[in-house]
């Protein structure tokens, strides 16, 4: 037996097709993030599953600007690991110090999938942020990474159990070289 929806949407959006509602705006899922107490252990498990190679970067105040945690300025440090797989990106984050939604997640749940990131389709970043805010979701962490990538995480857990991230990568932006690779850099 199906349980009734606890927070029904009124009015219910029109169904436009198999993959679209009239109120769709997040775009495609392009990243899944796993938060881990030990990034090395998490990466070894991912590589065992055939996911990788991984770039590894230590993030501190020199690489993360305008950081806010739950609406207040803060500083945090973490290890950020990235790997690409077809049309999606995998991320593993190990929080090191300072407040963050990653440390909060580890304290509540332990290692696991903490957030999902969407590309927003053609909707500009400020409009995606405004739409999520207008829907009543609060930004719980924001900042600018590597001098160009703006990001915002929203407290969407009550509706489906995970955080949603939206971000903006400027045209032509290139990530800085990684601090390390795992298990090794790609050939060439």
Description of the molecule:
- This protein has 188 residues and is of the alpha+beta class.
- The chain is built from 4 helices and 13 strands.
- It has a domain at 32-62 and 76-169: 2,3-Dihydroxybiphenyl 1,2-Dioxygenase, domain 1 (Roll).
- The chain has helices spanning 39-48, 101-109, 125-134, 157-160; strands at 15-17, 20-21, 29-35, 54-59, 64-69, 72-73, 77-85, 88-97, 112-118, 139-145, 149-154, 163-168, 180-182.
- A hairpin with a 2-residue loop joins β5 (64-69) and β6.
Task: Name the features.
two-stranded antiparallel ribbon; 188 residues; 13 strands; eleven-stranded mixed sheet; 2,3-Dihydroxybiphenyl 1,2-Dioxygenase, domain 1; alpha+beta; single chain
Question: How would you summarize the topology of this molecule?
Answer:
Blueprint: E1 15-17, E2 20-21, E3 29-35, H1 39-48, E4 54-59, E5 64-69, E6 72-73, E7 77-85, E8 88-97, H2 101-109, E9 112-118, H3 125-134, E10 139-145, E11 149-154, H4 157-160, E12 163-168, E13 180-182
